[in-house]
Amino acid sequence: MSGRIEEYRGTSYNDPDEAHDAGQMRIPCMVVVMSLLSVRQKRKCQYSPACLLASRFSSLGGEHNTNSIAKGEGVMELATRLQQKITEFAKTPYFTLYVVDPVGVGREACLELAGSKGYAYINCNIELSQHLEHVDQRLWCIRATDVLRSVLPQGHSEVAILGDIQILFAPEMKLNVIPFIEGLRSCSLIVLWPGYLINDQLLYSEPNSPDFCKTKVRPYQLVV
């Protein structure tokens, strides 16, 4: 852009009117070029993991900050029940449990367990956003596995909590979410499902939304 500006400034005109007309023609062209660059930057941002993360949180509002109680069950009660489930599966290598978390109580219970039992809490949105920001979008679905495996504890007897997984549902990620999660196999996982459960099916988002997901897991994997 600076080269074009100098070229324009260095051009000599014998007729002042001619110079004025040329300026009137060139300046709008410069504005158009700058506008196109701005559009490209917006498009790049729109599809970056960081922007996907921001859009997910803005669409969820304060969902994870609420202290609402699901089915009259408090955070400590849910944490206790969840720990009992973990103990029950302790001899099963690489088990995966899904905490259906429509109002945020599940997240609070998992944070309680992370503090009291020392389980790692992995914020999936943040980890993927930070590590995929400069990765070609076509490689996101491949690199996402490597990123999460690098931050999860290793070993079939280890337990970690995988929360804030909204970015996994973004269509740009091109992930089949449940097989992706269960294919990590770095450790046993407690997954905070940010959607809801209907007729034994896990759902996320709405049917007409591009990030909609409907899937099934084994009934004994569910904590609702």
Topology, pairings included?
Elements lengths: L1 H8 L6 H31 L2 H12 L14 H14 L7 E5 L4 H13 L2 E4 H9 L7 H12 L7 E5 L13 H6 L5 E6 L2 E3 L2 E4 L8 E3 L6 E2 L1
Parallel strand pairs: 1-4, 1-8, 2-3, 3-4
Antiparallel strand pairs: 5-6, 6-7
Helix pairs in contact: 3-6, 4-5, 6-7
Produce a short descriptive summary.
This protein is an alpha/beta fold and about 220 residues long. The protein has helices at about 1-10, 15-45, 50-60, 75-90, 105-115, 125-130, 140-150, 175-180, and strands at about 95-100, 120-125, 160-165, 190-195, 195-200, 200-205, 215, 220-224. It folds into two domains: about 1-45; about 65-224.
Proportion in β-strands: 5-15%
The helix content is 40-55%
In total, the number of domains comes to: 2
> First CA to last CA: what distance?
58 Å
Using only C-alpha atoms, the radius of gyration works out to 25 Å
Largest sheet composition: 5 strands, parallel
What would the average pLDDT be, to the nearest integer? 77
Folded structure, characterized:
The protein folds into 2 domains: 2-46; 66-223. The termini are far apart. Mean pLDDT is 77; it is low at 1-13, 22-47 and 56-72. The protein is an alpha/beta fold and 224 residues long. Helix 8 links the parallel strand 3 (159-163) and strand 4 (188-193). It has helices at 2-9, 16-46, 49-60, 75-88, 105-117, 124-132, 140-151, 177-182, and strands at 96-100, 120-123, 159-163, 188-193, 196-198, 201-204, 213-215, 222-223. Helices cover 47% and strands 14% of the residues. The chain is globular and about 40 Å long.
